[in-house]
Design the sequence.
């Protein structure tokens, strides 16, 4: 077992050991015993039987390790997805701004061209402004059409968001797996071991 996993298993054992020693079930059982081992003696025996106690929750521990490994594999994907979302956000912003700016530019140029046609005799100036204005109007319409065509797809994607949100987050899955492991360790490993120790104190149980 890697050092990190050994450290985590030891920490889980210590946590559940303290939890069991403070539990009502253990205290009620200890009151019925005349010569109750001390907490130090019980901790000593539990630490010596560490492997056997941890083995009682092997199945839950394996699920926890798998959940943690799956979350580690998903980490780079989530970061990439975030970069894609940022790029998609910039593209969406541009696709919104281009039609608006083009429409405003077209309106200004066309009005300027009409005004020049009224107040100047140089016809090439109003014609130039109106030509550029028509080009800008064409750009505005051409930029807006793809957005209109994509709008049903956007609606579908928005409906899909709640479904994705309904899936448990990787961190939550890990926490649930860890909690299940600790519970199994307490109920099937630590607590039965401590209850058996109440009537079986060995001479080597020292602090």
Sequence:
């Amino acid at each position: 077992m890697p050092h990190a996993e050994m450290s985590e298993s030891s920490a889980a054992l210590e946590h559940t050991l303290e939890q069991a020693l403070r539990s009502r079930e253990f205290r009620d059982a200890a009151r019925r015993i005349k010569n109750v081992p001390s907490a130090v003696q019980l901790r000593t025996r539990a630490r010596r039987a560490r492997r056997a106690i941890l083995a009682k929750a092997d199945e839950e521990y394996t699920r926890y390790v798998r959940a943690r490994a799956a979350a580690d594999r998903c980490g780079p994907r989530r970061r990439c997805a975030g970069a894609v979302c940022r790029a998609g956000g910039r593209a969406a912003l541009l696709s919104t701004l281009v039609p608006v700016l083009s429409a405003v530019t077209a309106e200004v140029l066309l009005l300027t061209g009409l005004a020049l046609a009224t107040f100047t005799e140089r016809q090439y100036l109003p014609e130039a402004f109106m030509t550029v204005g028509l080009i800008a109007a064409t750009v505005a319409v051409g930029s807006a059409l793809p957005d209109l065509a994509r709008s049903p797809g956007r609606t579908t994607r928005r409906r899909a968001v709640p479904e994705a949100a309904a899936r448990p987050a990787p961190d939550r899955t890990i926490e649930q797996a860890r909690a299940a492991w600790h519970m199994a360790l307490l109920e099937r490993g630590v607590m039965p071991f401590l209850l058996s120790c109440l009537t079986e104190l060995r001479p080597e149980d020292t602090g």
